[in-house]
Amino acid sequence: MKDGPDIARIASLIGDPGRANMLAALMSGKALTAGELAREAGVRVQTASGHLTRLEEGGLIARERQGRHHYFRLADTDVAGVLEALMGLAAAKGQLRTRTGPRDPELRRARVCYNHLAGEVGVMLYDGLRARGVLTGEGEGIALTDAGRAEMAALGIDLSAASRSPECKSCLDWSARRSHLAGRLGRGILDFTFAQGWAMRPEGTRIVRFSGIGEGAFRKAFNV
Amino acid sequence: MKDGPDIARIASLIGDPGRANMLAALMSGKALTAGELAREAGVRVQTASGHLTRLEEGGLIARERQGRHHYFRLADTDVAGVLEALMGLAAAKGQLRTRTGPRDPELRRARVCYNHLAGEVGVMLYDGLRARGVLTGEGEGIALTDAGRAEMAALGIDLSAASRSPECKSCLDWSARRSHLAGRLGRGILDFTFAQGWAMRPEGTRIVRFSGIGEGAFRKAFNV
DNA sequence: AGAATAGTTCGGTCCAGACCGAACCATTCC
DNA sequence: GGAATGGTTCGGTCTGGACCGAACTATTCT
Q1: Is B125 helix (H, G, I), strand (E, B) or coil?
Q2: Any atom of strand D under 7 A from CB of B16?
Q3: Where is the HTH arsR-type domain (chains A, B) (predicted)?
Q4: Is the pLDDT of residue A16 over 80?
C-alpha cells in the first residue's frame, strides 16, 4: 500500500539494541562523544561509528565536531518525544518487566527527559504549578499566567533560552503516564535546580538525585 | 546501561516493512483478517501469520477469532498514538519525501486516525470547535463545555461508546503537525459523519472522501 | 461425509546488517 | 617533528530473521 510516511525506516533505526541504547543515553540531553556512546551501547567504537552515521543520515541525531571529538545529540525535541512515547509503550507492554534494573526506582522518581524534569517529581511540579495558577491550560496549550511569569522571574529562572521551542509544553511521562512540564520553562527550571545545587546527576545516567535539603528547597520554591 | 524500558524490542517490531505496513493498515481502525493484512504487506499468508504472532506477543495488536477468521486490530489507542507520532517524525525526516504516493494529497486532506478524523479537515474541526467554545482547554486537558455537550446531543452524536477512553482527547497529526480531536467525541463525530452519508471511505485506505454536498453539510453542522 | 476456505506450523534458503580487527585519517600535546 | 588520542573506513565473518513451499489443523458449506 505504501500510503503515508515510511515509519519502518525510522523504527528500524531505533529497533537495534545498540542504537536504542545510544538514543536512550542521549535522552539525558547531554551531547556525548562517539566513544562514550560506544561504551553505552556495549560495542566497539568502530561499530558505534557506523551506527552513529546511520542515525545521523536518518535525521535522528545531530553531530558537532569539536577538534578531534565528535559530539552527538538528539536532532530535536520531536525525536525525544517519540523516544519517550516509545518508552511509555515499552513500559506498558514490557512482558512482566524483564527484571527492572536496580536504578529503576530512582529513575521513576526523578530523571532528565532531554532537557527538563520527568518522573514523579516532574509530574508533581506540573500539577502543583497548575493548581496554583502559575500555569493555565493543559497539554500543548499550556501557558504561563502573568502572575506565573512574574514569579519565575523573581526566582531568577531564565526563560530566554535561544531556541524555537515554545515557552511551555507538556510531555508524556513513561513511568507515571502523566504529563510533565517541557519547553523553555521546563528547561529553565531544571537548569535552575542544578544551579542551586538542589540536585545532582550521577555520572552517565538520567537520574536526578535530590539531596534532602535540596528537595525541601525545591518544594518550597515552587510550592509543591 | 539498560536503564529504563526496552524500546528496541517494540521499535524493531515496528521496524520491519511488512509489519509496519500491517500496522499502518490497522490505523484505519478496522479489524482486518490475516489474509487481508498479508495482501497489505505484500507477503504470503504464512509470512504474515508469523508477523502477526510476533506483533501479538509484543502487545501491539489484539486477535479475535471468529469462526475460521482471525481478526486483528491495534491493541489500544496508545499504540495508535505512537504510530501516528512515528509517522510525524518520518514525514519530517523523510529524506526529501521518497516520491509521495498518488493518494497522498487526499490522505493529508482527511483520513481516519484509528477511530477518529485526522488531516486538514480534522484540524479544522478541532480549531473550529475550540474557537466557538464547544471545547475548552487544549491538549490532553480538553473538554466539552456544557453548551457543547448539548449541541452534540442535539445533533444526535453518540458519546456513550463503551470504552475507557476519555470523552475528549487530542492527537497529533502527522501531516498537519497540529492537534486534532480524538477520544469518544472524536469517534462519535466520525461515526456520525459516515452515518449521515457525508463521506465515504475508499476500500482499503485510510482516506475519508467527502462528497461536495457532504462537506457542506459537515461544515454547516459543526460550523467550521 | 467431502470439498473449499482461512490460518498455522515446519523446514529450508538466503541475505541484510551487526560486529570486530586492522589500517588509515585528524587533531592535540610535548 | 613524533607520540598519543579519538574517529572513520575497509574487509571479512557470522547470525537473526524474513521469506516461501508444503504439510497440517480448524471451520464452514453443501
Answers
A1: helix
A2: yes
A3: 1-94
A4: yes
Task: Select the residue of A8, A87, A91 nearest B17 (Cβ to Cβ).
Answer: A8
Contacts (Cβ under 8 Å, ≥6 apart) of A204: A25, A40, B1
CB contact under 8 A, B78 and A101: no
Render pLDDT for B171-188 as a digit per residue (tens, 0 to 9).
Answer: 767 776 667 888 888 888
Query: B70: left (phi > 0), else alpha (psi -120 to 50), else beta?
Result: beta
Tell whether the model's pLDDT for residue B132 goes beyond 60.
Answer: yes
Residues of each domain in chain B carrying CATH 1.10.10.10: 7-75
Q: B191, B183 in Cβ contact below 8 A?
A: no
Put simply, the answer to whether B4 touches A13 (Cβ < 8 Å) is no
Residue to mutate among B28, B93, B109, B177, with most A CBs inside 10 A, is B93
The CATH architecture that domain A7-75 belongs to is Orthogonal Bundle (1.10)
Decide which of A88 and A136 is more confident. Answer: A88
What's the rounded mean pLDDT across residues B14-27?
95
Q: Are B110 and A111 in contact (CB under 8 A)?
A: no
Across the interface, whether the CB atoms of B8 and A20 are under 8 A apart is answered: yes
Chain A nearest CA to B91, separation (Å): 5
- Percent pLDDT > 70 in chain A is 85
**Which residue bears the cell 524534569?**
A117
| pLDDT in the model for residue B109 | 87
Q: Which residues of B21-42 are buried (b: 16+ CB within 10 A; e: fewer)?
A: bbbbbbbbbbbbbbebbbbbbe
Mean pLDDT, range A39-67, rounded to an integer: 93
Specify whether the CB–CB gap between A112 and A28 falls below 8 A: yes
What's the rounded mean pLDDT across residues B144-166? 79
Model ipTM value: 0.75
Burial degree of B117 (CB within 10 A; 0-12, 13-18, 19+): buried
Q: B11 and A4 in contact by Cβ < 8 A?
A: no
The C-alpha of B129 sits at a distance from chain A's nearest C-alpha, in angstroms, of: 15
What is the rounded CA–CA span in Å between residue A74 and residue A8? Answer: 19
Q: Say what the pLDDT of residue B93 is.
A: 81
For residues A37-47, average pLDDT:
93
Which residue matches cell numbers 509470512? Answer: B47
SS3 state at B146: helix
Question: What torsion, rounded to 10 degrees, do the Cα atoms B183, B189, B195, B200 define?
Answer: -90
